[in-house]
UniProtKB/TrEMBL annotation:
Keywords for this protein: ATP-binding, Cytoplasm, Nucleotide-binding, Nucleotidyltransferase, Transferase, tRNA processing
Superkingdom per UniProt: Bacteria
Protein name listed in UniProt: L-threonylcarbamoyladenylate synthase
Record's compositionally biased regions (Low complexity): 23-34, 368-388
């Protein structure tokens, strides 16, 4: 399995080709053969799958199959082969990457890709990321040409949480690239993602597997809660190791542009390039964004979220909310939340967040994914369970009650707020990796607990903290609370 996670030995192909802004046809058999990456990494060494698929074998079924991986390698490989067949037949498969869970479809099949947009409620001018097993699968039919900056970054950071925006080849459907002449391409480090793409024999288009605008899913349970009825298969490999989406860099310009901070810190990219990354362009109304996560409100819980720069600014807002009878959830680093509670002179209920650090099935833990690996079993000794189908809530794997069911965590739990705010701890200010892993779990937990207001405290904006702050600003979407010296004064919340 280590072979699934090493950077490629050969540089990405400097494939001749032309840029194209016109809609491309779906690739024919010869193009598909080239794009399938014949001779790519083997899919062996996967964690084992337990249970059975709930839909029709070999293709999309009327009900999703939730398959938990981690106990029997032979069953795992069979499950991934079934998932690959579903993708080839135009189905939707949710699967883990090292960043978040993705909702995958055959990137060369426009009808299959259209199902992604329908399932998520995703705007058509928001392009998708195409996932490949390695640079050998990103030949001239997919990527028209490789700028030198893209070559250098792929050599260093692939496989891993880095997406490169490149000139699109003729096989990329317009729906994937939102009509733009570029395509966003990533080589994931997670062994299940690698094996799935190889089994499908085609590049896989995959945004995060959640309803558009919601917090991204870091566990299979999150995927099921948002998209269960729309799935043909869900591959569950436990919590993901990074917790925020990939970094997106446009390498068609010089200096390259940082379009979205993510799992690879910008400082690491700049060290390889020897130049500072440029700021992203301003996307006007009516224009397609060059990368996901740039144009719309994203990552947001159901409750309104305000982002405060420090404990003092946050305490003012929380006092007002508590006086109004709001159920308040605090999201922030431990030190900052303690300071805020001290200013309030009130206690709070600290809710532990299991971001998967104890789950032996979680691949890796470093941003590049080079150390990714699995061991059998589940966190806390929970027995692995078979697949279940629970559209709209009800019973999932192992008979557990899922979100949306009669006893699911989506019910309001006012008693949790009896002692004041509920605290969702992102960890230490000195651990941006922990903050990233816990962020989306915290935002989803706020909804599950029934919070009516969420106050997020800013984290140190360096390394992965830059990605965390990007997600919080997008989730706030106008609810950022300026400091006392800010000319705009207080925020809207």
């Amino acid at each position: 399995m280590d072979g699934l996670n090493r950077p490629p030995a050969d540089p990405p192909p400097a494939a001749p080709g032309r840029k194209t802004g016109r809609p491309a046809r779906a690739a024919g058999p010869q193009a598909r053969s080239r794009l399938a990456g014949e001779g790519t990494r083997a899919a062996g060494g996967l964690p084992g799958a337990s249970g059975r698929a709930g839909g029709r074998e070999g293709g999309p079924g009327p009900g999703a199959a939730w398959v938990r991986l981690g106990t029997d390698p032979r069953q795992d490989e069979a499950a991934v082969r079934r998932a690959g067949a579903i993708l080839r037949q135009g189905g939707l498969v949710a699967f883990p990457t090292e960043t978040v869970y993705g909702l995958g479809a055959d990137a060369l099949n426009p009808r299959a890709v259209a199902r992604i947009f329908a399932a998520k409620g995703r705007p058509a001018d928001n392009p998708l990321i195409v996932h490949v097993t390695g640079p050998e699968q990103a030949g001239p039919e997919l990527v028209a040409s490789w700028p030198e900056a893209g070559r250098r970054l792929a050599e260093r950071f692939w496989p891993g949480p880095l997406t490169l925006v490149l000139p699109a080849g003729p096989a990329v459907p317009a729906v994937v690239r939102a009509g733009l002449p570029t395509v966003a391409v990533r080589c994931p480090a997670h062994p299940v993602a690698q094996a799935l793409i190889a089994a499908a024999g085609t590049p896989v288009a995959a945004p995060s597997a959640n309803r558009s605008g919601r917090p991204s899913p870091t566990r299979a349970e999150d995927v099921w809660a948002d998209l269960g009825p729309h799935l043909d298969m869900l591959l569950d490999a436990g919590p993901v190791p990074v917790g925020v989406e990939s970094t997106v860099v446009d390498v068609t310009v010089w200096p390259p542009r940082l379009l979205r901070p993510g799992g690879v810190p910008a400082e690491d990219l700049e060290a390889v390039l020897g130049v500072a990354l440029a700021a992203p362009p301003v996307v006007a109304a009516g224009e397609a964004a060059p990368a996901p996560g740039m144009k719309y409100r994203h990552y947001a819980p159901e409750a309104p979220l305000a982002l405060a720069p420090d404990a003092g600014a946050g305490a003012v807002l929380v006092r007002r909310w508590l006086a109004e009878g709001q159920r308040v959830a605090l999201v922030g680093c431990r030190e900052d939340v303690e300071a805020l509670l001290g200013q309030l002179g009130a206690g709070g209920r600290w809710v532990p967040l299991d971001e998967g650090e104890g789950d032996p099935r979680r691949a890796g833990g470093d941003p590049t994914g080079e150390a990714a690996g699995f061991a059998a079993g589940r966190a806390g000794g929970e027995p692995a369970a078979g697949a279940g189908s629970a559209p709209g809530g009800g019973t999932g794997p192992g008979g557990a009650t899922e979100p949306g069911g009669p006893e699911g965590p989506g019910r309001e739990r006012a008693g949790d707020f009896a002692r004041g705010p509920v605290v969702l701890d992102l960890g230490s200010r000195h651990r941006p990796d922990q903050q990233a892993r816990r962020l989306f779990r915290a935002l989803r937990a706020a909804d599950a607990l029934g919070a009516t207001r969420v106050l997020a405290l800013a984290v140190p904006e360096h390394g992965l903290g830059r990605a965390v702050m990007n997600r919080l600003r997008k989730a706030a979407a106008g609810g950022e609370v300026p400091g006392d010296d800010h000319p705009q004064g207080a925020g809207r919340l």
